[in-house]
């Protein structure tokens, strides 16, 4: 890891790392999901006689929250309290995110009730968006509506993440009508739509193999001046594959390339999946070769698709 190399060079040069250096290293491992190494560097920080602060503990919580490891989140929160360090709204947001990721919405709501009364407006927005994410993952659109209403009552203004999360909840629930209603409310609120917004709208159609509706949202995206990203095309490809239309899958793959978006391993694997389902081994071989020629590395899903 480059951060570690820099640390080693500093030590070799006789420069003692400070709290900021240790926190940067810990954050790097937290973002990479390497929580064991994150905690190891926390131990080195303590061994160096550097006191931990709010930032340090928030990084520890963030790392475990990303993985939904609520037991370690609770452990480090307790350690923070024992050290006499006052938790911030960011601290609680990390805890909320851990429970949302773990799918434990009951404890997520319990921790929301412990949030400090005062906090930065941006952090309050994050708190509500995490609550919505937790219920959206379960397709619980009634509870999403509840927290959206509480959000407005608290004077917190929804942003694109708020509405995209609500759309995702409707997509998970398979409620296309409600999803389109939330999209209209997003537009009425003058919140800027983005590639994630349209990707979510297309995702619901793709799950059902409704390729005409997928194309409708793709056209709407272009009309809105939103540039499609690789994830948008991957969703379109998946919709065609679900519909069993390999010719249309290849057509969209060509449009993806023509638009200047480089296909990734997901795009190629989706192409392979479509042909594998029809037993067309020649086209599977063709697209596998094209994948290698493009310098795209096959992953475990690619090989599983070919073996199936």
Assess the beta-strand content as a share of residues: under 5%
Instruction: Provide the succession of SSEs.
Output: HHHHHHHHHHHHHHHHHH
Considering DSSP H and I runs of 4 or more, what fraction of the residues is helical? over 70%
Number of domains in the coordinates? 3
Q: Quote the average pLDDT.
A: 93
Largest sheet, strands/sense/barrel: none
Shape: globular
Write the CATH architecture name of the largest domain: Alpha Horseshoe
What is the tally of helical segments? 18
How far apart the termini lie comes to 36 Å
Low-pLDDT segments? none
Number of beta strands? 0
What is the CATH C level class of the largest domain, in words? Answer: Mainly Alpha
Radius of gyration: 23 Å
Q: Could you say which structural class the secondary elements and strand pairing correspond to?
A: mainly alpha
- Looking at CATH, the homologous superfamily of the largest domain is Tetratricopeptide repeat domain
CATH topology of the largest domain: Serine Threonine Protein Phosphatase 5, Tetratricopeptide repeat
